[in-house]
Specification:
eight-stranded mixed β-sheet; alpha/beta; 2 domains; globular; Rossmann fold; six-stranded parallel β-sheet; Dihydrodipicolinate Reductase, domain 2
């Protein structure tokens, strides 16, 4: 049993607390928030200690792991402090808002011999695991088209609700860095690394933000496949559009819609396909978090956290290491660089 401390006092900190309380292998020891009243309110809500100084949480020897739920551009400093205090770290997406800041986090955690894990909770969905197995076993043949579609909506009030929202410094970007990053991570987790891309971004319907609410990128994968990323918070829908990952190849096509499949079709069927068709095909569910970020459940976070505990206890790597968490930010950073150069092709390392 590992004891967790949470750094952060907003909506995401609530997700973390709920996920930790639902764990079999973890318990919540305390919460630090910059504003004392938030720390005390959350601690009372979740029956744990309130810390009004970060140093006090980090010096508590009962805390084994900290989760970081601060704004995106404020992940580096608490990560470095936690690592130097000997705490293992699970950090919200994106790990940070630039690849260079993430690389610094990775390096310090290696030096201090603590685990750094990213939160990409959608990787733990059963549909993603089945999808990954199909790719890894070669069922698609030659990959041809691999795409991510995130046609979401956020109100103006959402961006107005926090001074950090929609800023380069603390949000790190807009629809891509904040909302679409989960699906971009799924795309590269499933389809493999991107070789180069060309992109265009713009802000079409929101006011007073520095970042994009609409973006598109053309992709060339190292496998030879082509693809696109479409990410937006400008696509109104009464129910919210599901986020989708499409992978097509010479031997099969799969379209994943949030946590289930719209298409599961292979030239050569196998018996395991029956499980997918009986258990994981899409119904009429609303898009998870597409219109309302508070509608996302915490079950994926719980699995993400339990995987980190397993890794610590067995001396192995978690599924979403710091290096894995870096990849999606590298892709988004390349999209932003391409867009600033009128769609010039940008190579990824």
């Amino acid at each position: 049993m590992k004891t967790f401390g949470i750094i952060g006092g907003g909506m995401i900190a609530n997700f973390h607390a709920q996920a930790i309380q639902a764990m079999r292998s973890g318990q919540l020891g305390g919460i630090y928030a910059r504003k004392a009243e938030k720390a005390k309110a959350l601690a009372e809500k979740y029956n744990c200690k309130a810390y009004t100084q970060l140093a006090d949480l980090l010096s508590d020897e009962t805390i084994d792991i900290v989760t970081i739920a601060t704004p995106s551009g404020a992940h580096l400093e608490p990560t470095l402090a936690a690592a130097k205090a000997g705490k293992h770290i699970i950090c919200e997406k994106p790990l940070e808002v630039t690849p260079a800041r993430i690389e610094q986090m990775i390096q310090v955690c290696k030096e201090e011999k603590v685990v750094l894990a990213a939160i990409f909770n959608r990787r733990f969905n059963p549909a993603v695991q089945v999808f990954k197995d199909a790719v890894a076993s070669g069922r698609f043949g030659q990959l041809t088209l691999c795409d991510a579609y995130i046609k979401w909506y956020r109100t103006q009030a959402y961006y107005d609700s926090g001074a950090w929202r929609g800023t380069w410094e603390l949000d790190g970007g807009g629809a891509l860095m904040n909302q679409s990053i989960h699906t971009i991570d799924q795309l590269i987790y499933l389809a493999g690394d991107i070789k180069r891309l060309s992109a265009s971004t713009t802000c079409l319907i929101h006011e007073g933000i520095e970042v994009e609410d609409t973006a598109v990128a053309i992709l060339e994968f190292k496998s030879g496949a082509r693809g696109v990323i479409q990410g937006a918070t400008s696509c109104w829908s009464s129910t919210g559009h599901p986020a989708e990952v499409h992978i097509c190849g010479s031997e099969g096509s799969v379209f994943m819609s949030d946590e289930s499949f719209r298409v599961w079709d292979f030239k050569t069927p196998i018996p395991e396909d029956d499980f997918v068709k009986n258990n994981l095909m899409a119904g009429t569910a609303k898009g998870l978090g597409a219109n309302d970020p508070s509608a996302i459940n915490f079950d994926g976070h719980r699995h993400n956290f339990e995987d980190v505990v397993r890794a610590i206890e067995t001396g192995t790597s978690p599924l979403v290491t710091g290096e894995e968490g870096l990849k999606a930010v590298q892709v988004i950073d390349a999209i932003y660089r391409s867009a600033k150069q009128d769609g010039a092709w940008v190579e990824l390392e």
